[in-house]
Design a protein that fits this description.
With 170 residues, this protein is mainly α. 82% of the residues lie in helices and 0% in strands. The protein contains seven helices and no strands.
Length: 170
């Protein structure tokens, strides 16, 4: 190999590394959203297990549907490794549905049907814990929606980092 070939190979390797770095930076824009959707997935899985233990069919069905929907949203986010489209519509709809379910669950907790929905809520401490837990879920979903809007409009921090990285690599 002569010097020209070695230099050409080094340049190709550097370009490949740059492309891969940019690809992972775009993928990292959705990192917080992926983690929060995973939290929802496992929360729904726990609700499914608890509902199964108590034999609560409506809880089993809703938890199963929400768990499957969270898994679909997770797969959509994994597609961002090879897809540069900024919007994640399945995840956005999932987050709105999760917020609505959490609101309905909070309402059910303050009505007499709480024993049908959450049979393990036997005192006020557990009741307040569950309401707090559901409110945190709503806050996380709102945070994800805010983050998705930032990404769609290229106002997120990662976009600035990617653009700076691209400029300095030219």
């Amino acid at each position: 190999m002569n010097k020209e070939e070695v230099q050409r190979q080094k340049a190709e390797v550097a370009k490949t590394k740059q492309r891969e770095s940019i690809k992972y930076m775009y993928f990292s824009r959705y990192l917080m959203i992926r983690y929060i959707v995973s939290i929802f997935l496992f929360s729904n899985l726990m609700w499914f297990i608890i509902s199964s233990y108590y034999g609560f069919r409506i809880g089993i069905l809703v938890a199963l549907i929400m768990g499957i929907y969270a898994a679909v949203a997770s797969f959509e986010q994994l597609s961002k490794m090879h897809n540069r489209k900024r919007d994640i519509p399945v995840t956005r709809v999932y987050l709105y549905v999760q917020m609505a379910v959490n609101i309905l669950l909070i309402i059910s907790l303050i009505t007499p049907i709480k024993k049908l929905v959450f049979p393990f809520v036997i005192n006020n401490d557990i009741l307040y814990f569950m309401i707090g837990f559901l409110l945190i879920g709503i806050a996380l979903a709102i945070l994800c929606e805010f983050r998705i809007r930032q990404i769609i409009h290229n106002k997120d921090r990662y976009h600035r980092v990617i653009e700076t990285f691209k400029k300095h690599q030219q």
